[in-house]
Design a protein that fits this description.
The complex is a heterodimer of chains A (487) and B (288).
Chain A (H helix, E strand, L loop, with lengths): L2 H21 L4 H15 L6 H28 L8 E7 L4 E2 L3 E9 L11 E9 L8 E7 L2 E2 L9 H6 L3 E5 L2 E9 L3 H19 L4 H10 L6 H9 L3 H4 L3 H17 L4 H19 L3 H18 L6 H15 L3 H4 L1 H24 L8 H23 L1 E3 L2 H8 L3 H17 L1 H26 L5 E3 L5 H20 L5
Parallel strand pairs in A: 4-7
Antiparallel strand pairs in A: 1-3, 1-5, 2-3, 3-4, 5-8, 6-7, 9-10
Chain B lengths: L1 H29 L3 E5 L8 E5 L2 E5 L5 H11 L6 E2 L1 E4 L4 H4 L2 H7 L1 E2 L1 E4 L7 H13 L2 E4 L5 E3 L5 E6 L17 E6 L2 E5 L5 H10 L7 E3 L11 H7 L3 E4 L12 H9 L3 E4 H4 L2 E5 L7 E3 L2
Helix pairs in contact in B: 2-4, 4-5
Chain lengths: 487, 288
């Protein structure tokens, strides 16, 4: 076996271990037992290469499980807060603004609210009024009663949803006082630049088009719930969230810019790479953007090198590293599942479509958009239905109608922001042209969300259904990728 | 080849200019019109009165994102000026979106009552008004705002400056009547039955064909006597879907039905819009 193949087999075993432990956790005894069995198999046959391989594969599986168990135990060991938290704390993420409130993520010393002598910093999620103008890095005085995160219904595992980001405590009501102290680091400035660009767009373009412009450029839900709803009904949420899709477009623009500036193709790729890192920093390094950055660059790199078909190794490596850092993503982060699977879909189906398209009319690239959308969609569909109980029938049509516009809308929106920085009128001129494209997107999505058949509510899609679907996909992918001369 | 490019460029320029000119002419033409839109902002009030490029907004709903989206949809995309914002009274579902409106629109004047609340959001909104340097007008009965096409908005209520209880905000609601020829609209804010009685006793001219139902259809508003006096043929209830207050109250809906008033609701019909072309013709209704 080729060494790289062995490496990726082991990596897959690691991911398998994370998967197993997330869904069917083995206790500490179970894990020891696993180690004992593996050793028992190895020791009498330590010269047999096959057995060594199995042993190592098993060890990787176990280490995945142990890594996951470690994180799960942190969640189990959470202690009930004993006292009111009254302290000056730092806001460590950009305030997440909702329609009627905002969520602040702060760090507090454990001995400030637990009956423990620990100076460790722990994250607390605080719900605050929208009228409070707060930002990343700001220090605030708070007075609140923290509580551990609990699940209210059986539908959504809120506790683990937050736990995956190491958030174990909440304050639903808090008295907040500004101190006007801000810790400014590099990160703070990146975020500030983005905010200024966003502001320029908000000034030049009316709503809801401005929110859409900022959404396709920087992600984040700025649209009202009413508008977010039409995007989810038409399966278009991925354009307003930071996804591998946006990153790929931005990276492509950066490469064009790089080449225009006189870089060679290869250098231009690194130029784009650096640009994407800055882009992710500007959004404030949320895990979703980091992931999107990795996936987007991965696809770009694979396409540039004509290696889309072999990009699965790179994808598994990227996924493996992300899970090593945070194994809880696998089960409890739908965003991780979606972006991993959508990328996998593109990698596994893309080359097949490429062969299919040779010598066929391309209709300005529309056919490719359809095929790529279908590829990504069939890989994420079960996850979407299982979690959101919604199947967007109109999604394909909506993607076809809207996706070709998005790169231009992104470019014009960005020029609006940049132009606004230089000279308001310039921003305005770009803003008006961006407005028409953005307006088209909103109108199209709104119109299609209104069809009676736009979406179906599916309430009884079970885990078995998910497994069945992926088993079918596995078979399909195998079949189309072995028959290389099908067309 | 180069010549061809110049021709194309010139043609594009011509088309672009024609488009912009066309839009401006269209707006100027529309300026003879009057549009009254009861915006669908969920639970809360927001009414946009538009005549050409002049706009008056009565209340802002409770949510900044929603009101900005609705204004963006209704107003011409190059127009970022609101000639006046009327805040009927300081209840959150009437001024909640004000700070955002002030941030992204140039608001030339703010018209409000002297009713007060200690709510932090209201204090912030007042600070924002100050920062905007808008002309701030305190409501006085009899004030009139006249649009170039002759439409007239007249303030009918509240009579008293804050002599009783400034925290009794609903009965400090601004009530206004908009006249455009034979078309009359009555905007009532959150006025309760006590306020209605005051208006009736004072003998104010409150008759109107289209009535904005007070307080989102709460049963403490829209008394039988009041409805009789206004004698509307149509009524609009600005209310959020599945709101926790149970608005509009079934009693109010029954009262309206008994008086054979046609009812439009923002939770069911979305934004309810009246377009009035000619003062002597009835306004045309646009709903979903």
């Amino acid at each position: 076996m080729h060494p790289s193949k062995i490496f990726f087999s082991f990596l897959l075993c690691f991911i398998g271990g994370v998967f197993w432990q997330s869904f069917w956790p083995l206790g500490t005894n179970g894990l020891w037992l696993g180690l004992a069995i593996l050793s028992a198999v190895l020791i009498p046959n330590y010269k047999n290469k096959k057995i060594i391989f199995i042993f190592l594969a098993g060890m990787f599986f176990l280490s995945g499980a142990v890594r996951t168990q470690w994180e799960l135990q942190k969640v189990e060991k959470i202690k009930e807060p004993t006292q009111v938290l009254e302290a000056t704390v730092k806001i460590i993420a950009e305030p997440d603004k909702k329609e009627y409130y905002q969520n602040l993520l702060v760090e507090a010393r454990e001995d400030e609210f637990l009956s423990e002598r620990s100076e460790k910093l722990t994250r607390i999620l605080i719900r605050a009024e929208l009228s409070k103008d707060l930002q990343y890095g700001e220090k605030i005085k708070i007075n609140c009663q923290p509580e551990t995160v609990k699940n209210s219904g059986s539908e959504f595992d809120y506790k683990m949803y937050l736990a995956k980001d190491e958030i174990y405590y909440l304050c639903k009501k808090a008295k907040i006082e500004k101190t006007n102290l801000i810790e400014e680091n590099l990160y703070f400035y990146f975020i500030k630049i983005r905010k200024i660009l966003e502001e320029k767009i908000d000034q030049a373009i009316p709503q809801p088009e401005a929110s859409l412009a900022n959404g396709i450029l920087f992600g984040g839900n700025r649209l009202s719930e009413e508008k977010q709803d039409i995007f989810s009904k038409t399966g278009m949420t991925h354009i307003v969230a930071v996804s591998g899709y946006n990153v790929t477009i931005i990276a492509q623009y950066l490469m064009l810019l790089g080449i225009w500036l006189g870089f060679w193709r290869k250098q231009a790729f690194y130029f784009a790479f650096l640009g994407i890192i800055i882009f992710v920093a500007m959004i404030g390094f949320p895990s979703s953007a980091v992931r999107a950055g990795v996936m987007g660059l991965l696809i770009l790199w694979a396409i540039k090198n004509g290696r889309l078909a072999n990009a699965d190794n790179a994808l598994i490596l990227a996924g493996g590293i992300m899970l090593l850092i945070n194994p809880l993503l696998l089960r409890w982060d739908i965003g991780f599942q979606l972006s991993f699977l959508a990328t996998l879909g593109l990698i596994k189906m893309g080359p097949f479509w490429e062969r299919f398209l040779i010598g066929k009319p391309k209709f300005l690239g529309l056919v490719e958009i359809v095929l790529m959308t279908v590829s990504a969609q069939i890989f994420v569909l079960p996850i979407l239905i299982y979690n959101f109980k919604l199947l967007s029938v109109v999604s394909l049509l909506a993607n076809l109608a809207v996706l070709p516009i998005i790169p231009f809308a992104m470019l014009l929106s960005f020029l609006t922001a940049l132009g606004g920085l230089i000279f308001p009128l310039l921003g305005q001129i770009f803003g008006y042209s961006a407005y028409f494209l953005l307006k088209y997107v909103i109108e199209a999505v709104e119109w299609m969300s209104g069809f009676d058949w736009a979406f179906l509510e599916i309430n009884n899609f079970s885990v078995a259904g998910v497994i069945f679907w992926y088993a079918g996909l596995f078979w399909l992918v195998k079949k189309i990728n072995t028959k290389k001369d099908a067309f | 080849m180069r010549f061809k490019k110049t021709v194309y460029l010139f043609l594009t320029f011509l088309i672009f200019t024609a488009l912009i000119l066309g839009l401006i002419i269209l707006t100027l033409k529309k300026s003879q019109q009057l549009e009254v839109s009861f915006l669908n902002v969920g639970q809360g009030d927001a009414i946009l009165i538009e005549s050409g490029n002049r706009q008056v907004l009565i209340d802002t709903g409770k949510n900044g994102r929603t009101i900005l989206e609705k204004l963006g949809e209704e107003m011409p995309f190059w127009d970022r000026t609101l000639e006046m914002v009327i805040v009927t009274h300081p209840d959150f579902d009437h001024y909640g979106g004000l700070s955002e409106v002030l941030k992204y629109y140039q608001v030339e004047s703010v018209f409000k009552t002297e009713a007060e609340t200690s709510a932090e959001e209201w204090q912030k909104a007042k600070e924002d008004i100050e920062k905007e340097k808008s002309l701030v007008l305190n409501s006085t009965v009899g004030s009139e705002l006249i649009f170039p096409n002759g439409a007239k908005l007249e303030i009918l209520y509240p009579f008293s400056k804050v002599e009783q209880n400034p925290e009794d905000k609903n009965d400090m609601s601004i009530v206004a009547r908009l006249d455009f020829g034979k078309n009359k609209f009555l905007f009532t804010g959150d006025l309760s039955q006590d306020g209605e009685v005051e208006l009736l006793e004072y003998g104010a001219n409150i008759s109107a064909g289209i009535l904005k139902i007070g307080h989102h259809g709460s049963k403490s508003s829209s008394s039988e006597k009041f409805l009789e006096k206004v004698n509307p043929s149509e009524a609009v209830i600005s209310v959020g879907e599945k709101n926790s207050y149970g608005h509009p109250h079934s009693e109010v809906l029954e009262r309206l039905e008994r008086n054979s008033v046609k009812v439009w609701r923002t939770d069911k019909n979305g934004t309810v819009k009246y377009k009035c072309k000619d003062p002597e013709d009835a306004c045309r209704l646009f709903v979903n």
